[in-house]
């Protein structure tokens, strides 16, 4: 499958596919980690989410992964708004449909995100991950991320408190250099 993967910037026409990826991966990745009602609320909001995304897509920084013309993964990034990491980049989301995980798409999306974050003028990046999302933590650790903090985040309208870890990646240019062959 590797040679079929296309990584490109997200466009307004991707809004529904992006909203669907959020919904499906929240269900598959977070069942047993987040309360069911939080996941259900996210899934119910999918159409609203896609309309909102379509309208403000030009303001959002999305990178998508396509296989055979179908959008199967996404990454969303920006300059960090965290008071402790004002000069860092921030990967807000990286989600891949479960049938397309473990074939290298995550790494490709991550490296494309690193490239864009360097263009924003950042030397490092942070991201938040649920403490119980051990699979994602394993992925970030494998790519060189280090845990630098822990915070409680309130999820959805019900404001369910969940513990998240902050993972930091330093020296982004070196990460790209080390992955030139990938
Ligand atoms: C986490 C996620 C983005 C990883 O993407 P992926 O496409 O499955 O990962 P890749 O196939 O690109 O893996 C890249 C490398 O990481 C390694 N890796 C992946 N998951 C790992 C884990 N849990 N532990 C250790 N290594 C891992 C792979 O073996 C691969 O190593 P290699 O390239 O050196 O051979 C993806 O599985 C996903 O979308 N999960 C559900 C949503 C989610 O939890 N997102 C993160 C929210 S914070």
Short description:
This protein has 182 residues and is of the alpha+beta class.
For the largest beta-sheet, the strand count, sense and barrel status come to: 7 strands, mixed
Strand order of the largest sheet: 1-2-3-4-5-7-6
Q: What would the principal axes of the Cα set say about the shape?
A: globular
- Number of self-contained structural domains: 1
Label the CATH architecture: 3-Layer(aba) Sandwich
Radius of gyration: 16 Å
Q: What's the total count of β strands?
A: 7
Structural class: alpha+beta
Termini separation = 14 Å
Secondary-structure element pattern, one letter each: EHHHEEEHEHEEH
The portion of residues forming beta strands comes to 25-35%
Name the bound molecules. coenzyme A
Structure report:
This protein is 37% helix and 30% strand. The chain is an alpha+beta fold. The protein has a single domain, classed as Aminopeptidase. Strand 6 (146-155) and strand 7 form a beta hairpin. The protein is globular. Bound molecules: coenzyme A. Coenzyme A is lined by residues 25, 29, 94-96, 101-107, 129, 133, 135-136, 138-139, 142.
Key features of this structure:
binds coenzyme A; alpha+beta; 182 residues; 7 strands; Aminopeptidase
Task: Give the helices and strands, then pairings.
Layout: E1 5-9, H1 15-30, H2 36-44, H3 46-56, E2 62-67, E3 70-79, E4 89-96, H4 105-119, E5 125-130, H5 134-142, E6 146-155, E7 160-169, H6 172-178
Parallel strand pairs: 4-5
Antiparallel strand pairs: 1-2, 2-3, 3-4, 5-7, 6-7
Helix pairs in contact: 1-2, 1-3, 4-6
Bound molecules: coenzyme A.
Residues 25, 29, 94-96, 101-107, 129, 133, 135-136, 138-139, 142 line the site of coenzyme A.
């Amino acid at each position: 499958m590797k040679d079929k993967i296309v990584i490109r910037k997200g466009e307004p026409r991707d809004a529904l596919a992006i909203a669907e990826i959020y919904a499906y991966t929240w269900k598959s990745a977070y069942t047993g980690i987040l309360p069911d009602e939080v996941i259900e609320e996210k899934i119910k909001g999918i159409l609203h989410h896609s309309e909102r995304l379509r309208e403000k897509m030009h303001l959002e920084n999305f990178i998508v992964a396509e296989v055979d013309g179908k959008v199967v993964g996404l990454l969303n990034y920006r300059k960090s708004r965290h008071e402790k990491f004002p000069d860092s980049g921030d990967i807000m989301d990286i989600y891949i449909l479960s049938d397309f995980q473990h074939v290298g798409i995550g790494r490709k999306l991550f490296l494309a995100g690193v490239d864009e974050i360097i263009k924003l003028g950042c030397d490092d990046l942070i991201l938040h991950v649920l403490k119980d999302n051990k699979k994602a933590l394993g992925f970030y650790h494998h790519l060189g991320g280090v845990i630098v903090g822990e915070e409680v985040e309130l999820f959805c309208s019900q404001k369910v408190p969940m513990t998240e870890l902050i993972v930091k990646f330093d020296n982004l240019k070196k990460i790209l250099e080390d992955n030139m062959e990938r």
